[in-house]
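Comment thread on ticket #2218

A.B. wrote:
> Attaching the input chain for the structure job we discussed in standup.
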Amino acid sequence: LLGRRFTNRLQAAYQRLLTDAVTEQQVARSVLASIPRFNTEFPDTNFAQSLKAIAQLIALRNHAGVRASRQVFNTGMVHFDTHSGGLASHNNKIQILSEGLGAFYSALDEIGLRDKVTTFTTSEFGRTVLPNEDGTDHGWGGHHLVMGGAVRGGAVYGRMPDLDPDGSDVYGNRGVLRPDLSVEQYLAPLALWFGLSGAQVERVFPNLATFGNQRLEFMG
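C.D. wrote:
> Ran it. Output below, let me know if you need it in another format.
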């Protein structure tokens, strides 16, 4: 496929993308061959091992031809869609999350970059207060974690909700938590830390104006 000559533009474009991917993989392999070993022990979970790979790439940033002042690495955990399994399943996932993030932060300390890396969570939906089978159903509001040397940590930003199904923070008969902070208020300070100006943030998050342009001030 890489050696063929295509006259169709879509086929030629796909060939270029594939060629670039193969080239980048070869470069990455040669760079990763010189990876320094961390003293930090990463747990043997998919999530922790993905964070280990990210930490290694960060450690080798000066050897990989990276010119961008800011980079984004994305990883994730699945199976938080806990319709069954109950609290035991959820607690196990939180433990995997905690141990993986702890090892990642320790590795950043080793390479002296804890102040230069900010780790944050996102999710497309939360969970309900009321149960569904042996778990919970899809919901609205939820909590997120932000971690890094540039974070004003050790604090809860926003208001902890009232989990009473009949309380003012719960909507409808399914126990859906009603959020009082927006995604824009959460992501705007991260965008500023990432290097955007105030005007650029307003363009990226036009709905921020709906909330009086008030963002959560958790970044130092």
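A.B. wrote:
> Thanks. Noting for the ticket: The longest helix spans residues 86-110.
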